[in-house]
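Exercise 7. Predict the joint structure of the components listed below.
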Amino acid sequence: SQELEQSPQSLIVQEGKNLTINCTSSKTLYGLYWYKQKYGEGLIFLMMLQKGGEEKSHEKITAKLDEKKQQSSLHITASQPSHAGIYLCGAENAGGTSYGKLTFGQGTILTVHP
Amino acid sequence: GAVVSQHPSRVICKSGTSVKIECRSLDFQATTMFWYRQFPKQSLMLMATSNEGSKATYEQGVEKDKFLINHASLTLSTLTVTSAHPEDSSFYICSAPRRDTQYFGPGTRLTVL
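Solution:
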Protein backbone atom coordinates (compact mmCIF):
# COMPACT_ATOMS: atom_id res chain seq x y z
CA SER A 1 0.00 0.00 0.00
CA GLN A 2 1.06 3.55 -0.55
CA GLU A 3 2.61 5.54 2.28
CA LEU A 4 2.99 9.28 2.48
CA GLU A 5 5.56 10.96 4.64
CA GLN A 6 5.15 14.64 5.45
CA SER A 7 7.88 16.90 6.73
CA PRO A 8 8.18 18.71 8.95
CA GLN A 9 5.63 17.36 11.41
CA SER A 10 5.22 20.80 12.89
CA LEU A 11 6.34 24.27 11.96
CA ILE A 12 6.32 27.55 13.83
CA VAL A 13 7.01 30.70 11.84
CA GLN A 14 6.78 34.42 12.29
CA GLU A 15 4.15 36.24 10.28
CA GLY A 16 5.52 37.29 6.92
CA LYS A 17 7.96 34.41 6.59
CA ASN A 18 7.93 31.91 3.74
CA LEU A 19 7.66 28.19 4.44
CA THR A 20 7.63 24.86 2.66
CA ILE A 21 5.95 21.56 3.54
CA ASN A 22 6.99 18.37 1.79
CA CYS A 23 5.11 15.20 1.01
CA THR A 24 7.04 12.14 -0.14
CA SER A 25 5.49 8.96 -1.44
CA SER A 26 6.79 5.42 -1.43
CA LYS A 27 5.15 4.90 -4.82
CA THR A 28 4.32 6.91 -7.92
CA LEU A 29 1.58 9.42 -7.21
CA TYR A 30 -1.63 9.34 -9.21
CA GLY A 31 -3.46 12.43 -8.06
CA LEU A 32 -1.93 14.31 -5.14
CA TYR A 33 -4.22 16.46 -3.01
CA TRP A 34 -3.41 19.17 -0.52
CA TYR A 35 -5.91 20.00 2.20
CA LYS A 36 -5.97 22.29 5.19
CA GLN A 37 -7.70 21.30 8.40
CA LYS A 38 -8.47 23.17 11.58
CA TYR A 39 -8.48 20.82 14.57
CA GLY A 40 -11.85 19.11 14.91
CA GLU A 41 -13.13 20.44 11.61
CA GLY A 42 -13.43 19.24 8.05
CA LEU A 43 -10.84 19.42 5.29
CA ILE A 44 -10.60 22.43 3.05
CA PHE A 45 -9.49 21.56 -0.47
CA LEU A 46 -6.44 23.55 -1.57
CA MET A 47 -5.06 22.00 -4.74
CA MET A 48 -4.80 18.82 -6.74
CA LEU A 49 -1.83 17.83 -8.91
CA GLN A 50 -1.65 15.04 -11.42
CA LYS A 51 1.08 15.62 -13.94
CA GLY A 52 4.80 15.36 -13.31
CA GLY A 53 6.29 18.84 -13.03
CA GLU A 54 2.89 20.41 -12.49
CA GLU A 55 2.64 23.54 -10.40
CA LYS A 56 -0.47 25.32 -9.18
CA SER A 57 -0.98 28.47 -7.18
CA HIS A 58 -3.86 29.94 -5.25
CA GLU A 59 -3.37 33.26 -3.53
CA LYS A 60 -0.12 32.87 -1.57
CA ILE A 61 0.02 29.09 -1.70
CA THR A 62 1.90 27.17 -4.40
CA ALA A 63 2.05 23.41 -4.79
CA LYS A 64 4.36 21.43 -7.02
CA LEU A 65 4.61 17.81 -8.07
CA ASP A 66 8.07 16.66 -9.10
CA GLU A 67 8.81 15.11 -12.47
CA LYS A 68 9.06 11.62 -11.04
CA LYS A 69 5.69 12.07 -9.31
CA GLN A 70 6.92 10.86 -5.96
CA GLN A 71 7.22 14.12 -4.09
CA SER A 72 5.13 17.23 -3.72
CA SER A 73 5.83 20.47 -1.93
CA LEU A 74 3.51 23.16 -0.63
CA HIS A 75 4.97 26.63 -0.36
CA ILE A 76 3.38 29.55 1.47
CA THR A 77 4.69 33.01 0.75
CA ALA A 78 4.49 35.79 3.33
CA SER A 79 2.61 33.65 5.85
CA GLN A 80 -0.27 35.09 7.86
CA PRO A 81 -1.98 33.90 11.06
CA SER A 82 -4.90 32.78 8.88
CA HIS A 83 -2.61 30.17 7.32
CA ALA A 84 -2.29 28.36 10.63
CA GLY A 85 -3.72 24.86 10.75
CA ILE A 86 -2.94 21.29 9.82
CA TYR A 87 -1.84 20.67 6.26
CA LEU A 88 -2.49 17.23 4.87
CA CYS A 89 -1.37 15.66 1.64
CA GLY A 90 -3.49 12.85 0.27
CA ALA A 91 -2.90 10.58 -2.69
CA GLU A 92 -4.92 8.22 -4.78
CA ASN A 93 -3.56 4.75 -5.23
CA ALA A 94 -2.91 3.56 -8.72
CA GLY A 95 -5.62 1.67 -10.52
CA GLY A 96 -9.24 2.36 -11.45
CA THR A 97 -10.70 0.54 -8.46
CA SER A 98 -8.90 2.93 -6.15
CA TYR A 99 -10.38 6.08 -7.64
CA GLY A 100 -11.34 8.46 -4.91
CA LYS A 101 -9.70 6.47 -2.12
CA LEU A 102 -7.11 8.66 -0.51
CA THR A 103 -4.16 7.74 1.64
CA PHE A 104 -3.05 10.63 3.83
CA GLY A 105 0.20 11.78 5.27
CA GLN A 106 0.38 12.32 9.01
CA GLY A 107 -0.10 16.06 8.64
CA THR A 108 2.00 19.16 9.30
CA ILE A 109 0.89 21.49 12.08
CA LEU A 110 1.57 25.08 11.12
CA THR A 111 1.62 27.87 13.68
CA VAL A 112 2.07 31.46 12.55
CA HIS A 113 2.95 34.00 15.21
CA PRO A 114 1.79 37.57 14.59
CA GLY B 1 -19.69 27.45 -0.03
CA ALA B 2 -19.92 23.96 1.39
CA VAL B 3 -20.02 21.15 -1.12
CA VAL B 4 -20.57 18.26 1.29
CA SER B 5 -22.52 18.41 4.55
CA GLN B 6 -22.63 16.09 7.54
CA HIS B 7 -25.13 15.70 10.34
CA PRO B 8 -24.84 15.78 13.26
CA SER B 9 -21.63 17.71 13.85
CA ARG B 10 -21.33 16.33 17.37
CA VAL B 11 -22.96 13.42 19.13
CA ILE B 12 -22.55 11.96 22.59
CA CYS B 13 -24.07 8.60 23.32
CA LYS B 14 -24.03 5.86 25.90
CA SER B 15 -22.10 2.67 25.37
CA GLY B 16 -24.18 0.05 23.59
CA THR B 17 -26.36 2.44 21.61
CA SER B 18 -26.29 2.99 17.86
CA VAL B 19 -25.52 6.28 16.18
CA LYS B 20 -26.34 7.35 12.62
CA ILE B 21 -24.26 9.91 10.75
CA GLU B 22 -25.47 11.44 7.49
CA CYS B 23 -23.33 12.67 4.61
CA ARG B 24 -24.94 14.70 1.86
CA SER B 25 -23.59 16.04 -1.39
CA LEU B 26 -24.96 19.52 -2.02
CA ASP B 27 -26.16 20.38 -5.52
CA PHE B 28 -24.44 17.41 -7.15
CA GLN B 29 -24.88 13.69 -7.34
CA ALA B 30 -22.38 11.27 -5.91
CA THR B 31 -22.69 7.61 -6.78
CA THR B 32 -19.68 6.98 -4.56
CA MET B 33 -18.82 8.47 -1.21
CA PHE B 34 -16.06 7.64 1.21
CA TRP B 35 -15.99 7.39 4.99
CA TYR B 36 -12.88 8.17 7.00
CA ARG B 37 -12.05 8.10 10.68
CA GLN B 38 -9.59 10.35 12.44
CA PHE B 39 -8.32 9.71 15.96
CA PRO B 40 -6.86 12.59 17.99
CA LYS B 41 -3.60 13.88 16.61
CA GLN B 42 -3.63 11.29 13.84
CA SER B 43 -4.33 11.46 10.16
CA LEU B 44 -7.42 10.28 8.34
CA MET B 45 -7.87 6.59 7.70
CA LEU B 46 -10.23 5.32 5.04
CA MET B 47 -12.90 3.05 6.47
CA ALA B 48 -15.15 2.21 3.56
CA THR B 49 -16.49 3.14 0.16
CA SER B 50 -20.21 3.81 -0.04
CA ASN B 51 -21.77 2.82 -3.36
CA GLU B 52 -25.20 3.93 -4.50
CA GLY B 53 -27.25 0.90 -5.47
CA SER B 54 -24.82 -1.70 -4.19
CA LYS B 55 -23.06 -2.84 -1.05
CA ALA B 56 -20.38 -0.78 0.57
CA THR B 57 -16.80 -2.02 0.38
CA TYR B 58 -14.78 -1.98 3.56
CA GLU B 59 -11.08 -1.52 4.13
CA GLN B 60 -9.13 -4.26 5.83
CA GLY B 61 -9.73 -4.36 9.56
CA VAL B 62 -13.03 -2.45 9.47
CA GLU B 63 -15.99 -4.47 10.75
CA LYS B 64 -18.85 -4.25 8.28
CA ASP B 65 -21.40 -5.37 10.87
CA LYS B 66 -20.35 -2.66 13.25
CA PHE B 67 -20.18 0.18 10.75
CA LEU B 68 -23.27 -0.10 8.58
CA ILE B 69 -23.28 2.00 5.46
CA ASN B 70 -26.33 2.78 3.36
CA HIS B 71 -26.19 4.87 0.20
CA ALA B 72 -29.88 5.74 0.15
CA SER B 73 -29.84 8.12 -2.78
CA LEU B 74 -27.46 9.87 -5.14
CA THR B 75 -26.93 12.62 -2.59
CA LEU B 76 -27.04 10.76 0.73
CA SER B 77 -24.87 8.18 2.46
CA THR B 78 -25.33 7.17 6.08
CA LEU B 79 -22.90 5.54 8.47
CA THR B 80 -24.39 3.80 11.48
CA VAL B 81 -22.08 2.88 14.33
CA THR B 82 -23.84 -0.05 15.98
CA SER B 83 -23.44 -0.94 19.64
CA ALA B 84 -20.97 1.85 20.08
CA HIS B 85 -18.19 1.55 22.65
CA PRO B 86 -15.78 4.15 24.02
CA GLU B 87 -13.07 2.99 21.61
CA ASP B 88 -15.35 4.05 18.74
CA SER B 89 -15.07 7.64 19.90
CA SER B 90 -13.50 9.48 17.00
CA PHE B 91 -13.95 12.09 14.31
CA TYR B 92 -15.85 10.65 11.34
CA ILE B 93 -15.62 12.45 8.05
CA CYS B 94 -17.00 11.69 4.61
CA SER B 95 -15.94 12.73 1.14
CA ALA B 96 -17.55 12.82 -2.27
CA PRO B 97 -15.99 13.33 -5.69
CA ARG B 98 -17.01 16.25 -7.81
CA ARG B 99 -15.28 17.08 -11.08
CA ASP B 100 -12.27 14.88 -10.28
CA THR B 101 -11.76 16.49 -6.87
CA GLN B 102 -12.52 14.93 -3.51
CA TYR B 103 -14.51 17.23 -1.26
CA PHE B 104 -14.83 16.52 2.42
CA GLY B 105 -17.64 17.15 4.83
CA PRO B 106 -17.16 19.10 8.07
CA GLY B 107 -16.96 15.89 10.10
CA THR B 108 -18.86 14.41 13.03
CA ARG B 109 -17.35 14.17 16.49
CA LEU B 110 -18.59 11.00 18.19
CA THR B 111 -18.09 10.56 21.91
CA VAL B 112 -19.18 7.29 23.48
CA LEU B 113 -19.50 7.35 27.25
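Discussion. Chain B touches chain A through 23 residues (CB under 8 Å).
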